Amino acid sequence: MAWTTEDEKVWNLTNPFRQHLGIEIKWVKDKRAEISIPITDNLIQAYGMVHGGIYCVLIDTVLGTAVRGGYGFDAKPLTTDLNVSFLRPSGIGTLYATAEMIKTGRQVAVGNGDVRDAEGRLLATGRGSFLVRPQE
Length: 136
Known about the structure:
Elements: H1 5-12, H2 16-21, E1 24-29, E2 32-39, H3 52-71, E3 78-86, E4 93-104, E5 108-117, E6 122-131
Antiparallel strand pairs: 1-2, 2-4, 3-6, 4-5, 5-6
């Protein structure tokens, strides 16, 4: 059964970490997804920029969402590798992360993700690999 945007929104409400950060599900379709996060003062590091870990969280989170979009909830994706390149700093505002799975095998999925600001500027890009539960 296909995993929909509404399925992910409901599931998102049960995730305390996502709720703490204010992550919002924009859409999920097939093996692609988009999420957003409001950047507030508590996510800014000492130099006045978004902490790089937030970019990592966004890419990891949106990739996991895209995995569920391709496999459904039972995939229960677990990150096995995540590589993020930081391209430009950002500050207060809303950030958007998009992802697309580029390989979906029986037990491993690989995808690319990007983080952009409200003006569409590319802030970070990354690739992640995920272990998915084998079909039973």
